């Protein structure tokens, strides 16, 4: 086997949350380009993502739900239903997330809980269910949690988002320690500053846009497709000895 063969995901199934657009859509399509069939979880319709995947000759189905309402029983149902429909489940990508920009003194209890529910609770419940499925089946698998630059930094007026993304990085390391011996790889991917709807406000502000680009050694915003290589690596056999790592795809931001 050549090293290039280890990146092939043919015959595997990946479940990706928040896959209707943006980074989640790009990562899902990257996995499909590498050969994986897809289970897409989103509160919005993933019609475009499904169409793109099917054009590649991959199967793609959606489970439509709001992850803010997910509990442990619901997560288990998602994982086992997905495995039942597809015949197998090899890869979990916890991408879905929400961000609230507001001065800390104005953050309500409901504001706080809304972000915690999606970014942290849903991620944990899905990891837990996926781990249980893989352990019961004695199968190897890949869990990839999407972290952030704010897993490392504090940010400004995003206390709930920073708290959750810091927790996601810690959770990733904790689960990797627990499951690595069972050939379950748990790693994270931390995107830098990317051109998505989330960053539209910054990019439309001339001063903030210039300041951001000047801070990025690559001298440009990331494009969603820039994550395809990293997500395929983490989902493939090429990363079989990688456990508990948070891979930053940030144009050099953290190294500055």
What does this 3D model show about the protein?
The protein has 256 residues and is an alpha/beta fold. It has a single domain, classed as NAD(P)-binding Rossmann-like Domain (Rossmann fold). It is built from 8 helices and 7 strands; from the N terminus they run βαβαβαβαβαβαααβ. A 7-stranded parallel β-sheet has the order 3-2-1-4-5-6-7, with helices on both faces.
List the helices and strands and how they pair.
Layout (H helix, E strand, L loop, with lengths): L12 E5 L4 H12 L3 E6 L4 H9 L4 E5 L7 H15 L4 E4 L14 H29 L3 E6 L12 H21 L4 E8 L8 H4 L2 H10 L12 H8 L10 E4 L7
Parallel strand pairs: 1-2, 1-4, 2-3, 4-5, 5-6, 6-7
Text of the CATH class = Alpha Beta
Portion in beta strands: 5-15%
Order of strands, main sheet, comes to 3-2-1-4-5-6-7
Number of helices: 8
**Major sheet details:** 7 strands, parallel
Structural class: alpha/beta
User: What's the CATH superfamily, by name?
Assistant: NAD(P)-binding Rossmann-like Domain
